[in-house]
Structure formats: structure tokens, C-alpha cells
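[job 4471] stage=fold_predict status=RUNNING
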Amino acid sequence: EEEQPIGIWGQRNLDYLKHHCKVTYTNLLTSGRLNAYLADIDRQAQERFERLIEGMKQAQGITEQLKAENALEWTGCLNNIRACAREIVEKEIIFA
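[job 4471] inference complete, writing C-alpha cells
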């Protein structure tokens, strides 16, 4: 199996599998599919995370104009959006 890079989402899913889904983890590991599985989870989660952030930014009116006018408010809003998106991705993909 060719090693594929595993990002933060894949690492979080790996940790979850090791601690809560030991049979699934062992089956993936022994079959040689663990790396490909984690790379796919990582890709799906990253794409979902980015889509959620863009959608929430549009819904809340977080624009580049706000960034130019009030960088502190823009940063706070974006941090809140990222935290919400992270929770959604973890619930839907990582810990599912």
C-alpha cells in the first residue's frame, strides 16, 4: 500500500478508532487499508470543513470589507465559525 499523507482530521479519526472502535481499527490495519481509509476521511472532512466555513461566512455577512474595516471583529467571527464547523465535521465524519 502506498503511504498517503494523513492530516489532522485523519489523525483525529485514527485516535477515535484506536480508543472506541478497536475491531474496525484492527481490521483496517491487518488488511492494509488503514492508511487509504484515513486519507479518504481526511480529504472528506477537510472539504466539508471548508464548505461549512464558506457557507457560514456568507450567511453571517463576514466579508473582506469587514476584515479591512474591523480586523478584530472579523477575527472573532471567523474563529467562532471555525469552531462551529470543527464541531460539525467531528460529529458528522470523525466520530461517526
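[job 4471] summary: Helices lie at 8-20, 22-31, 34-60, 64-69, 71-94.
[job 4471] exit 0
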